[in-house]
Design a protein that fits this description.
This is Phosphotransferase. InterPro entries: AGP_Transferase, Aminoglycoside_PTrfase, Kinase-like_dom_sf. Pfam families: APH (PF01636). By secondary structure, this protein is α+β, with helices and mostly antiparallel strands. The chain has 2 domains: about 90 residues, 2-Layer Sandwich (Phosphorylase Kinase, domain 1); about 210 residues, Aminoglycoside phosphotransferase (APH), C-terminal lobe (Aminoglycoside 3'-phosphotransferase, Chain: A, domain 2). The chain is about 35% helix and about 15% strand. A 5-stranded antiparallel beta sheet has the order 1-2-3-5-4, sandwiched between helices. A two-stranded antiparallel ribbon has the order 6-7. Strand 9 and strand 10 form a beta hairpin. Helix 4 runs antiparallel to helix 5 and helix 5 crosses helix 7. The longest helix has 22 residues. It starts with 11 loop residues before the first helix and ends with a helix.
Length: about 325
């Protein structure tokens, strides 16, 4: 089902035609669906490759950023990230740029009882990561260790020299105030959808309070901007890789910490300790978690129930303090 206007048709026939035309050396490899996010559709190619295709021509700019910067950043980071091996060109079959990347083994983080969010199917398991009947793939052995590893990755990313880069920039690397009107509309739109299951009044109060906070950290750094669980891969119980750098940009680091509200409370506590964040940064990060979660619920309500479940779980964790 399309998630946005002007979506391109992406199916196995389209992907095979692109590979045959531009990468004939891989034309004989097996091709299997490998999930889809809000911006891209993925196919696994053989055992070691991933084809990544933007959902629309308008969504393709981040892919060029990945192709430019991921090879530069990868050697400097403590965990594997996607490595582009081919920059695909637009064609008659598919009028947008696309990428082939190295496949990274792993599965999104799960508790021993299943996915982090409440909807079945959330955090789809990539092919080749099957677990046992009793242990879901991606099961985290120790959430505190997971959180410390994630904090270490973020700290390293934020410490990498900008190397003269001045962009790209995205709203999540900026200030909260320009998002105020949008945030309040998103929260208002959530009210009839979530009913009394989430305290929207409390979330709006927390958002309002965050707008009054000063900024302590004025550094601009490299940002992933979307470190939600489905973009983290677990292998052998540990955080093993970070994927989907479509939001790679430069800006302030507050919003980078927002996805910790997608994790269990023990992980969130360990992350706070490991990252050594001050209260103001933590509150601003929480505000970013609110606006991103609240905007996702009404926008994807009819088209992407798994993502809506992620957003609901995030807002519920903030509102209940769990």
């Amino acid at each position: 089902m399309p998630l946005h206007e002007n979506e391109l048709v992406v199916d196995e026939d389209v992907v095979r035609s692109l590979i045959a035309e531009q990468c004939p050396q891989w034309a004989g490899l097996p091709l299997t669906p490998a999930g889809a996010g809000t911006e891209n559709t993925m196919y696994r190619l053989g055992d070691g490759l991933l084809v990544r295709l933007p959902r629309s021509v308008e969504k393709a700019a981040p892919l060029r950023t990945e192709q430019r910067w991921l090879p530069v950043l990868a050697p400097l980071l403590p965990l594997p990230i996607p490595a582009p091996v081919y920059a695909g060109r637009p064609s008659d079959a598919y009028p947008a740029p696309w990428s082939v990347l190295r496949w990274l083994d792993g599965a999104p983080p799960h508790t021993a009882n299943g996915p982090l969010a409440t909807s079945p199917g959330t955090a789809p398991t990539p092919p080749g990561t099957a677990g046992t009947a009793t242990t879901p793939p991606g099961t985290v052995t120790d959430w505190r260790t997971f959180a410390r590893d994630l904090s270490g990755f973020i700290r390293t990313l934020h410490g990498i020299d900008l190397m003269g880069a001045t962009g790209p920039r995205w709203y999540r690397g900026g200030e909260l105030a320009p998002c105020d009107e949008w945030a309040r509309k998103a929260l208002a739109d959530c009210r009839p959808l979530v009913g009394d299951t989430i305290d929207i009044d409390l979330l709006e109060h927390l958002w309002t309070e965050a707008l009054r906070l000063p900024r302590h950290d004025t550094r601009e750094v490299w940002l992933h901007t979307d470190l939600k669980p489905t973009n983290l891969l677990v292998r052998d119980g540990r955080l093993a890789a970070v994927i989907d750098f479509g939001g790679l940009s430069i800006g302030y680091p507050d919003a980078e910490h927002a996805p910790v509200w997608d994790l269990p409370a023990s992980a969130r506590e360990a992350y706070w300790d490991a990252a050594n964040l001050d209260d103001i940064t933590w509150q601003r990060a929480r505000a970013w978690a609110i606006v991103v979660g609240a905007s996702g619920i009404p926008y994807y309500w009819h088209t992407y129930p798994d993502f809506v479940a992620e957003c609901r779980a995030r807002l519920s964790a903030i509102a209940t303090g769990v």
